[in-house]
Amino acid sequence: MKRFLIAALVLAVSGIAYYGISPLFRNIKVDEAIPTSKQPATAPPESAGRLVADDADPMIVQEMNGANETGEAVQVTGTPGHPASGTVRIVTADGKRYVRYENFRTINGPDIYIYLSKDIAAKEYIDLGRVKATEGNINYEIPAGTDVAEYPYVLTWCQAFGVLFNSAKVQ
After folding, report:
1. pLDDT, tens only, 107-133
2. Alpha-carbon span 133 to 73, nearest angstrom
3. What is the average pLDDT across 16-35?
4. Nearest to 104 by CA among 124, 132, 126
5. 3-state secondary structure at position 18
6. Hey, what's the torsion of the CAs at 145, 165, 119, 133, to 10 degrees?
7. Which of 7, 77, 96, 155 could crosslink 115 through cysteines, CB 3.0-4.6 Å?
8. For position 24, what pLDDT does the model report?
9. Where are the alpha helices (DSSP H) in the chain?
10. Alpha-carbon gap, residue 155 to 76, rounded angstroms
11. C-alpha distances in angstroms, 31 versus 41, 59, 73, 164?
12. What tens digit of pLDDT does each residue of 95-110 get?
C-alpha cells in the first residue's frame, strides 16, 4: 500500500512538473503583417465632403482616409524569471484596433494570454486571447467598443498560476 501511494505521488508530481515546465522548451515563431486599411491613402473626392489642402500633412490625410494609425511603440518589460524583449503598440486599420507586438520574444508558459489591463496586477482586464507565439510580429484584435484609454497596460499573463510574464504601458 505504501509503495502504491509513493508511486501515485511521484506520478502526480511528474505530471504537474511536465505541465508547468514543458512549455518553456517550446518556442513558436509568427510573423504577421501589420494590419492595413483596404482603402487607398489618397484624398477623397470633394463630393465626399472632405476637403484637403494641397499643403496638408500626409499623415493627417492618411488618417482622414481610414489608413493606418499607429501609436508609439513602447518597450516590453519582462519580470524576474520571465525575460522578454521587443516593442508593443496600438494599431488602427479599417476601424479596428490591434495590439501589435514587434520583434517580440518571451518564454512560453502553460496557459498564457494577452490582456489589456487597467493595472499591472490584472485586476480589471480585457482578454485578447491565448498567446499566438513566443517570438515575432504578432497582432491581437481589440474588441469593438473598448475604450483603450481606460486600459493602458498590455500584459502577457499566465492564467493557470496567476503570474505576470511581461508588460508594456502603451499610454
Report:
1. 988 899 999 999 999 999 999 999 999
2. 19
3. 76
4. 132
5. helix
6. -10
7. 155
8. 58
9. 2-21, 58-64
10. 9
11. 24, 26, 17, 24
12. 999 999 999 999 988 8
